[in-house]
Amino acid sequence: MDGQAWLTGFTVLLTLLLLGGCNLQYRMLYETDTSLPSGSSLEENDLRFWPGKEEYRGFIGGSGTGRPRGTFIVFHGNGGTAADRSYYAHELGRLGYRVILAEYPRYGGRKGDLGEAAFVKDADETVRLAREMFSGPIYLLGESLGAGVAAAVAASTPVPLAGVVLMTPWDTLQAVARHHFRIIPVRMFLKDSYDNVANLSSFRGRIAVVGAEQDGIIPIRHARDLYGSLATPSKRMWIIAGAGHNDWLVRMDESLWKEIVEFVAGEAESNP
Asked: Is 187 within a domain?
């Protein structure tokens, strides 16, 4: 291919990206599942619609006996729905915490818009409502895309947060996009930024960063770069050896969950 033909082809490609960039972004980021989880499947996993089935915001589970040690609000990754993340309610509930599995707009039958602005606004409201309903410290846990939502909420919410756990996070969405699309000017077609570095730059609470060593979707260097950027003195990072983006859970055991949660909750529980 001669230079002129290459330039023409690249110009056409760039034009298509600019015209359809928003749709491309949404296909990369948001694998929406619009089905409403059934009551029977929720019962099997000891989950309930929260705050109620009508206009629900997520599912609640976790510690069912005694006084919970606090509330974890979980923001899930881009595939499936919040109801598919019952393992968080199980693991965190076993450690004594109430767990809210937050659902996004356009997922799980919820109405609303796709995109960072809509997700963060909705998540802010979920955190505010949890604060009104429950006493005790509030923690955020975000997985993959959900780490971006959790980081943005940490920057925007007036609700005091006791700590944040980020599972397989990135530094900036743009940095990850550049890794996967090296010859494309990704900044020109990414509408959402999910800049975790900027969003967490002023947060001084406890932050746990958990990366997957063999992550092919969000390479581990992005988690490391995020961790290195954190200004809080109360931070710690774990790297799950041999784990990929979608199989890290099977490499987590009870002792690792306990270690992560004890770190992120330490300050809040020593000062109730």
From this structure: yes
- 242-270 b/e (C-beta count within 10 Å ≥ 16 → b): ebebeebeeebeeeebeebbebbbeebee
Say which CATH number the domain at 187 has: 3.40.50.1820
Per-residue pLDDT of the chain (272 residues; tens, 9 = 90+): 454 444 444 444 444 444 444 455 666 678 888 888 888 889 889 999 999 998 999 999 987 556 899 999 999 998 889 999 999 999 999 999 999 999 999 999 999 999 999 999 999 999 999 999 999 999 999 999 999 999 999 999 999 999 999 999 999 887 776 655 655 555 556 678 899 999 999 999 999 999 999 998 899 999 999 999 999 999 999 999 999 988 998 999 999 999 999 999 985 554 44
Contacts with 247 (C-beta within 8 Å, 6 or more apart), sequence order: 212
* Tokens describing residue 143: 């997985």
Domain limits for position 130: 38-270
**Helix 145-156 vs helix 116-133: angle between axes, to the nearest 10 degrees?**
60
- The pairing of strands 48-50 and 58-62 is antiparallel
CA dist 90 and 39 (Å) reads: 18
29 lies in some domain: no
Is the whole model's pTM more than 0.70, yes or no?
Answer: yes
Domain count for the chain: 1
